[in-house]
Amino acid sequence: MQQFTIEPKTTCKFCWQSDPEDHVCQIVRNCSTTSVGRRSFYKNVRCNWTNGYSWWKAMFLSVTLGGFGVDRFYLGLWKSAIGKLFSFGGLGIWTIVDIILIGVGYVGPADNSAYI
């Protein structure tokens, strides 16, 4: 059997782990790295990669008030929250599916930030 070795060409880091000379900034809120590779890592000055959405709060809201779309309103997904509200959680089916999706982390905040 052959064994394959994968060697990374760039190192993925959070913005607080990278050196200041690795970044080129034009505007205070829009910074990105200049590394070799296909990725660009965006950096805020305060390195705010989470906006305060809590996974356990989203899960609690999904279990208790998920039939009214409160979990989706909390995460900022207001369009689907309105649909969930007026369909009473898809008569319970959408609520159960959302509990699973939030539980595994598939549904997250609308601004693509990480949970705290």
Automatic annotation (TrEMBL):
Keyword Glycoprotein listed? The answer is: yes
Main subcellular location of this protein, as a coarse class: membrane
Q: Which InterPro entries match?
A: TM2, TM2D1-3-like
- Localisation per UniProt entry: Membrane
Q: What is the recorded membrane topology of this protein?
A: Multi-pass membrane protein
Q: Which residues form the TM2 domain?
A: 52-100
Which top-rank group of organisms is this from? Eukaryota
GO CC aspect terms: membrane
A UniProt-annotated Pfam family: TM2
Q: Where are the transmembrane segments?
A: 55-74, 86-107
Please report which protein family the annotation says this sequence is part of.
Belongs to the TM2 family.
What is the name of this protein?
TM2 domain-containing protein
What organism is this sequence from?
Acrobeloides nanus
Which taxonomic lineage is given here?
Answer: Eukaryota, Metazoa, Ecdysozoa, Nematoda, Chromadorea
